[in-house]
Amino acid sequence: xxxxxxxxxxxxxxxxxxxxxxxxxxxxxxxxxxxxxxxxxxxxxxxxxxxxxxxxxxxxxxxxxxxxxxxxxxxxxxxxxxxxxxxxxxxxxxxxxxxxxxxxxxxxxxxxxxxxxxxxxxxxxxxxxxxxxxxxxxxxxxxxxxxxxxxxxxxxxxxxxxxxxxxxxxxxxxxxxxxxxxxxxxxxxxxxxxx
Amino acid sequence: xxxxxxxxxxxxxxxxxxxxxxxxxxxxxxxxxxxxxxxxxxxxxxxxxxxxxxxxxxxxxxxxxxxxxxxxxxxxxxxxxxxxxxxxxxxxxxxxxxxxxxxxxxxxxxxxxxxxxxxxxxxxxxxxxxxxxxxxxxxxxxxxxxxxxxxxxxxxxxxxxxxxxxxxxxxxxxxxxxxxxxxxxxxxxxxxxxxxxxxxxxxxxxxxxxxxxxxxxxxxxxxxxxxxxxxxxxxxxxxxxxxxxxxxxxxxxxxxxxxxxxxxxxxxxxxxxxxxxxxxxxxxxxxxxxxxxxxxxxxxxxxxxxxxxxxxxxxxxxxxxxxxxxxxxxxxxxxxxxxxxxxxxxxxxxxxxxxxxxxxxxxxxxxxxxxxxxxxxxxxxxxxxxxxxxxxxxxxxxxxxxxxxxxxxxxxxxxxxxxxxxxxxxxxxxxxxxxxxxxxxxxxxxxxxxxxxxxxxxxxxxxxx
Lengths: 195, 465
Fold this sequence. Notes:
The complex is a heterodimer. Helices cover 32% and strands 17% of the residues of chain A. By secondary structure, chain A is an alpha/beta fold. Chain A has a seven-stranded mixed sheet with strand order 4-3-2-1-5-6-7. The longest helix of chain A is centred in the middle third of the chain and has 13 residues, at 124-136. Chain A is globular, with a radius of gyration of 18 Å. Chain B has two domains: 5-275, Aconitase, domain 3; 287-463, Aconitase, domain 3 (2-Layer Sandwich), CATH 3.30.499.10. Helices cover 32% and strands 16% of the residues of chain B. Chain B has 16 helices and 18 strands. Chain B has helices at residues 5-12, 38-47, 77-93, 108-115, 146-155, 180-191, 206-209, 213-221, 237-243, 253-262, 312-325, 345-348, 351-361, 379-387, 390-396, 446-455; strands spanning 14-17, 23-26, 29-32, 57-59, 96-97, 123-126, 140-143, 157-160, 164-171, 199-204, 230-232, 275-280, 287-289, 297-299, 340-343, 371-374, 422-425, 440-443. The longest helix of chain B has 17 residues, at 77-93. The radius of gyration of chain B is 21 Å and the shape is globular. Chains A and B meet through α4, α6, α7 and α8 of A and α2, α3, α5, β8 and α11 of B.
């Protein structure tokens, strides 16, 4: 699918200091009835974000005007649970381009990478510092440089390197996906089948 | 070099290794359902592509279907549209579709093994994390996202980095009233919901090989709840006996040839795993969860852990979870009142689960405060329940049988547990709101669910066996 080419992002970050944020929280199953991929951002974190009557829960971070930005920071084991790609779509559609955590669930990580959403893994101690920086100053910015594979806390100047495999990096930087690659390989695949 | 079972199957399916990237992995069997496939078909259309190997994909609607009055048109407009869209996409691309009410209908992970679509040595994927179920047959089976569904439709391949290997050995004999579900919840409570991340699990040991195929499927099904990509068990006589004669399984001399190949499928004696765990079956009690992830489980006689020693986001997360559940540290789970019981799902919706539940409630009565939803995993399971006379036993005890589907496991259809209510569920996830907004889920085995259903409170099933 087409998504924006990823370059460098400098932005404030939205903190979600909860562990095991599962895909049912990111996008509850009852919102998976669509047959097209649009509008999922409206229901991102639906049950944490809204009361049953549809009114916003004022204590939830997305409803707090102090916090905004293209970077979502979550506790460890972010994206656990179901394989629903709708979770990555919802986060992207809401406007995030980066999710930072000390640990991601595998399927979520793959889905994010396939949709132009960059998962950045940092050490637990660094993650705690990100949370405390935002707590002191919600407008504090962070810089994600995909080319250099660095994540910088602009307030403290601390910068860490994150891992991403070179193929996926190339895809993100160029807005490419795996399907183009695989379709080009059809003869090789047919030859494999004939073995 | 000594190879694990996982290595052997994975390596035999690598079409190409991408430099600095993932492997291009060939997929033998692709299962699709109504929820995670429509956007993939839309993607094909946008790119002007056809399905590359339609005979390797099988479809059924399960996540979103009602479990009553399936002969009528689906009332919910969005659900109906999604199901119709699946049928339309399958017709257009020549994919076999098992519609509502047909003999082949059911939860994808139940019908695959039932029809013999699931076979040892295969690579199997589906846009559903519980695809790990099929690993019970000695296959590499795992859940994928919709982009990957589109990849498989377009090329019969996906691109995946090869995971690490983990072996979990459970030795010894299971106690009375302890099932495969309890083994799984016990393991996850020990290694946590992220302990398996980045790994593919092979289960081994005498407690595992003594399980039936149904039990093995339950165990492999829950592999994903430890964060692992999947779980598998080397095929053996139990596997072959289950498979023989099923619709899509090789027949006659082809069976003999396949069997000879399948018997080779096991880890070499000195194969090295990246991570190993060993547990003793006699340490495992009937399990129940008390929190909002499947790792928050304990033996049914135990008390909810205290927060002593926890700090930071660990503590915040634990407290948030107990607050949602309406429980406190140190409390006993046994004796707590419940409101709903759900028997079903790809975890515990197979015939053996219904047999165990029926055997347990036979001659007893459902507690008046409990609403019970008994949802077979497939039409075939439903037929078998009827053929074996289990319906009469269940009805005499005050239970009724619904029709197949995923139902209250994820509550996409009308089978939603109301806010604040407690549900003892044989399904796989106790996440906040999983069974409906505000619903509180307690994961357990079919026997433990049956015990709660007849007493109306959380009950150690061993007291009633």
